[in-house]
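Marked as duplicate of an earlier ticket. Keeping the data here for the record.
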Amino acid sequence: MATKQSFQTYKGFAVYPWINKADTEYNSEGVYKTGLRVPADQAKELMKMVQDIAMDEFGAKKADKARMPWKVDDETGEIIINAKSKFQPKVYDSDGQYIPPERLPQIWGGSVLRLKGVINTYDTSGNTGVSLQLSGIQVIELAERQGGDDGGFDAVEEGGFKASTESETNGEKEEGFSADF
């Protein structure tokens, strides 16, 4: 197996981060992970390093078909680098100060981060590829939660549909919903 090599990214935007708690949807033990959206020119160095490691580990024929820890956004040309770990990565603020897990703010998608860790190869059960094992995250800018319950909408149309909290049935007022089919 190839010597494990460290990596560090440029800053980019978090894509579906699971940093505060592990994602257990497909792995009951949980996985800490995030994607990082970066401009293609800033991903070239890391991509070349990963491809070189794959070439050394698997040879040219197998390396060409190996899974890589990124995907290209067809609309923007940006690269989404994916990194993960079984263990919660250490998180640092923009000054490089460690943030203990109990003081860690919620890290949402769109936060500006830098990632570091170790490049790892795998070749098991017909799956060949390279993964980025996440060990540290630096939070440059913290994004606010997007979506969720923001209290509803402002009125935009006069005379439009208005919901009632009561409905009339046989002249009596009734709470809730009723329908005659």
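See parent ticket for discussion. The longest strand covers residues 127-141.
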